[in-house]
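Lab notes, practical 5.
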Amino acid sequence: MAAAARCKACSQGLSLVELLVAIALGVVLSFGAMSLLLASKRSYLEAEELARMQDNGRHALRLLSFELNMAGYLATRVPGTAVDPVESGTACFDYLMRTNPPLEHVNDVTSAGLSGGGQSLPADCLLPGRHVAGSDMLLIRRTLSLPTVDPGGQSAGIDPDAIYLRAGPRYGQVSLQRGGNGLTAEGELWEYVPQVLFLRNYSVTSGDGVPALCRKRLGRSANRMAPTECLVEGVENLQVEFGIDEDGDQLADRFESVPDPAQLRAAVAARIYLLVRSVRPLGGYSDDRFYTLGNTRVRPPRDGYYRQLMQLTVGLHNRGGFRS
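Output from the prediction step:
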């Protein structure tokens, strides 16, 4: 009888209290595992957005610093030399075909791409309503760093749609001419690649809300501007200051955010400020920081995007033409 009673007690299973305790422990453990999984996913997304943002910022700085370094480079010609263009087209096309001045700066543009004061570019250089208001715009005039055809006549292949600068002592009048317009592989040929650099308020499709560093270049199929090409997404603000050499010692004595033409001709350096942001917002984060880009102060956005301020000072190596 005693053995039977014991076996009956063993077969009764868990009591209600024991069952409730087991369920509670299971819920706690499941909640802990879920919290750990969500925290791990959030950390991964944060790290991914930060890495992407920093990589975009470094790429934009490298691109802008290279273009500013090369501004005014015209192969064997003195930087800033006026070159006779054979081609003619729209207002912006003709404006970029002028090789002097080598560098132009438009400060704090409106959303239409217009300057609040000072110089504005021709209408077809701009994207009305699509510029990031309050950011700067640059116009760089230069050739590539290597010739398409060298002095010995070795050709890398003339592109019939590209614009070339013909240089060399045997050719008295240097000109800019499209490759397919009767240009022959004689002397030196350098591809001419001027461009307008600016920030657009969307990256891929209108209204996507992702600001991007973009450019406009000469058209290849006709004498007009090519479609806008965006290079780096997530660039929210661009400010450029120019180091002015006042005493001829090749050193910047002061920096100007809105240089006049005379000051720009005396510039020996450029200081680039970039405010870059993550492409996607992160839930639970709010950016409440101020950002100072030279003389420009950006108020706290108070949104879910990560941001980073980057800056770099570069030399204007072809400044000989700036003074011409």
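Observations recorded by the TA: The chain has a mean pLDDT of 87. The chain has two domains: 47-141+194-321, 143-192.
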